[in-house]
Amino acid sequence: MKRAKRSYTDRTVKLLWGRAAGRCAMPECRIELFADATEYDPIVTIGEMAHGAAASDGGPRANPNLREQERNDYNNLILLCQNCHARFDGQPNTYSEERWREIKASHEAWVRASLPERGRSRTGWTVLALRGDHPFDLATADEAVSPDFIAGTPQWLQVPTDAADWQDVDASIAARARELLAAGDAFDRRLAVFPLAPVSACISLGYHLTNRPHVRLFQYHRDDRTWAWPKRPAPAQDIVVSGLEEEDRKCRAVAFLFHYTAVITDAAIMGTAVPVERRVDFRVPQPSTGWLQHPEQMKWAAFEARRAFERAIQLFPHAKAWHVFYAGPAPVGVAIGQQINPTMCPRVQLYEYRHKETPSYRASILLEG
Questions:
Q1: Where are the domains of the chain?
Q2: 279, containing H or E segment
């Protein structure tokens, strides 16, 4: 087989190696990609620039529509050690496009946040406060982002708790997300999001922010009246996902139910009259408003959502619509919204819960890519 041509510009090489700090991007590895010189031999480079979409049409994650220049551009490359590169190319389904881009963005954000002196980033965080009809304050926001710091004045985005037109709400969120990502490289953006708003708005915000910027999410802990995370170890991973055990190529509608702060009853779903043919459930042993106590739990929730979405695309390839019913913390809603890939997923209908109304869930925002 003819070897694909690899030609990298100086800018591409500098960006890739510089932003990765000369370390493998895999979070479980991150070794320095240089072997120090010895008395007898020079320094050796052990890092490799791996292609997301393969350099050749027959390689892993190949995209024949990409030109040679695009295949060898910074945006299609990730810096890895030799061992991780072999695993990366040998397991292309595990390291899908969405997954490897998330790994790369997370690693570069880790470099910016973790490597400077004393762990304090030299770049501040832009604060975005997403709120519903009820005001809240950010008095503890500085403590929450410590040892980093807030850059500039916090930005506020208010959405109605009971919107007359949810698509207008989505449009306003999309416009603000575009503004936040417009200045400079989206992968360099550092956003600290403080949400206390309807879940539909939270998921919409995550969807429009995407996984490109580095986003830190915060939960308001009402008992302690603070946005700072409690100083306690991360609990065990307790999310169980069901409904992805078998293929159904005839399925046209899939429901995703997130039971984190409360159990979503079958009666509540039936009241919507949604023609759901398959359902995927995300459960924790004891759903409650106090479930979220550590940022690691958001990472697990985001990972399980992304994996389930990718699996659903494979199992239900002809589904025309996904229906998302969410009972969970606001910041986890943002994290889940970030996992919805507009280029791969069908249209996604969100629902808003109203305790005293029948049906309890009503269609809200439609995400159409």
A1: 10-115, 126-369
A2: strand 278-283
